[in-house]
Amino acid sequence: SRRAVGAHLAAKGVAQDVAQAALPAPEDELAAALAYARRRRLGPFRMHDADPDILRKELGALARAGFPQPVARQALDMDGDAALALVIGLKQGA
């Protein structure tokens, strides 16, 4: 996530303007959150329906990975086909 990368660069002493230039684009952050969700089988990639406890735990997992709450919520609420298309687009862009 942008936040995790920014914190890592700041800890290493990289100037803020240089760090901002190195951060991934904000539109890529949703795709990165979905890639993480796919690896962990969260949100649109889970195998079963979610109750409020599961959603809370999934939001926590994405937050611990450094994704802001609006991005995490958007990722968890996405349709499976649209989410997969974004993940594939991220992999093809890399």
Mean pLDDT: 87
Helix-strand sequence: HHHHHH
Number of helices: 6
Q: What fraction strand? A: under 5%
Low-confidence stretches: none
Helix content: over 70%
What is the overall silhouette? globular
Instruction: Count the domains.
Output: 1
Explain briefly what this protein structure is:
By secondary structure, the chain is mainly α.
Overall description:
The mean pLDDT is 87. The protein has one domain (25-93). Helices cover 72% and strands 0% of the residues. The two termini are 15 Å apart. It has helices at 2-11, 16-22, 26-40, 52-64, 69-77, 80-93. 24% of the residues are buried. The protein has 6 helices and no strands. The protein has 94 residues and is mainly α.
Map the helices and strands:
Blueprint: H1 2-11, H2 16-22, H3 26-40, H4 52-64, H5 69-77, H6 80-93
Helix pairs in contact: 3-5, 3-6, 4-5
What key phrases describe this protein's structure?
94 residues; mainly alpha; globular
